[in-house]
Amino acid sequence: LLASTLAIAPIAAMAADLTIGFSQIGSESGWRAAETTVTKQEAEKRGIDLKFADAQQKQENQIKAIRSFIAQGVDAILVAPVVATGWDEVLEEAKDADIPVVLLDRTVDADKSLYLTAVTSDLVHEGRVAGEWLVSEMGDQDCRIVELQGTTGSSPAIDRKKGFEEGIAGHDNLQIVRSQTGDFTRAQGKVVMESFLKAEGGENICALYAHNDDMAVGAIQAIKEAGLKPGEDIKIVAIDAVPDAHKAIAEGEMNATIELTPNMAGPALDALEAYLASGTEPEKWIQTESKLFTSEDDNQAIYDMKKDLGY
Ligand code: GZL
């Protein structure tokens, strides 16, 4: 027992000395806020000194923050990359400084040697599950779909769109008639849904697919203001499974959501500690689970459980 305890001590000591920079995208959605809360909790649990930088959804602010972390000589860097491109140069700089980088919840179009690992869900799979749910819901009924895309150029927006189209492929009764970014926010989700309703006529829209719940919650407001019943006149499926999505489903105003865990940092920090302590190379992708929730689930109970988790 003593030997094993002593073996743990140095790692614990190592963790106590770790300083890690976290370049967070912003607080554009409830899910993002929860990820920030959980990341700070996970660092605290490990005795890690976490340097936090909020980029207000601007890539140049993330690049500045990463350069600042490099100048500070942090032990490692966590990045949730707002868009998929434009990271090569700054990731090269981190590599030259021998500082490992771990990606959270989004991926980048850069050589995999430029980051230690990416902790994300299967974003294409999430979109496919959403499409397949709508196929099962609509059967052979015609359904004109509008789509609220995530942030333009982000890996979730690209992959969730791709997956959804795969999910509805071969079912020609399901057609995407409008598709536009709502930048993952409630405010933009409402504004863009208002434009869809105006352009198409609410009675001609059968379903909304939103790349995250926050845009769906904004769209629900617009649908109500247009005198229509969200969840009935217009079916709504989205992704994240934030508390307000479970609440909307419990109230019959939304129909389905796919859960994205806000705890990407746990697996990320475990991989970093193992790498820094003993050079253990993790897989390049640490995949988190995705779970579909519908009106069949006890959404009120899930809302009550999730509502205090920092969303
Ligand atoms: C997906 C993540 C997305 C969430 C949104 O992995 O990057 O960013 O689905 C958030 O809520 O804005």
Structural class: alpha/beta
Form type = elongated
Bound molecules: beta-D-galactofuranose
Let me know the number of strands: 12
Summarize the structure.
The protein is α/β, with parallel strands linked by helices. It has helices spanning 2-17, 30-45, 59-72, 88-96, 123-138, 155-168, 186-200, 213-225, 243-250, 265-278, 299-306, and strands at residues 19-24, 49-54, 76-79, 101-104, 117-121, 143-149, 174-181, 207-210, 235-240, 256-260, 285-288, 290-294.
Explain what the structure shows.
With 311 residues, the chain is of the alpha/beta class. It contains eleven helices and twelve strands. The chain has helices at 2-17, 30-45, 59-72, 88-96, 123-138, 155-168, 186-200, 213-225, 243-250, 265-278, 299-306, and strands at residues 19-24, 49-54, 76-79, 101-104, 117-121, 143-149, 174-181, 207-210, 235-240, 256-260, 285-288, 290-294. The longest helix is centred in the first third of the chain and has 16 residues, at 2-17. The radius of gyration is 21 Å and the shape is elongated. 49% of the residues are buried. Bound molecules: beta-D-galactofuranose (GZL).
Please write out the topology.
Layout: H1 2-17, E1 19-24, H2 30-45, E2 49-54, H3 59-72, E3 76-79, H4 88-96, E4 101-104, E5 117-121, H5 123-138, E6 143-149, H6 155-168, E7 174-181, H7 186-200, E8 207-210, H8 213-225, E9 235-240, H9 243-250, E10 256-260, H10 265-278, E11 285-288, E12 290-294, H11 299-306
Parallel strand pairs: 1-2, 1-3, 3-4, 4-5, 5-11, 6-7, 6-8, 8-9, 9-10
Antiparallel strand pairs: 10-12
Helix pairs in contact: 5-6, 7-8, 9-11
The structure holds beta-D-galactofuranose.
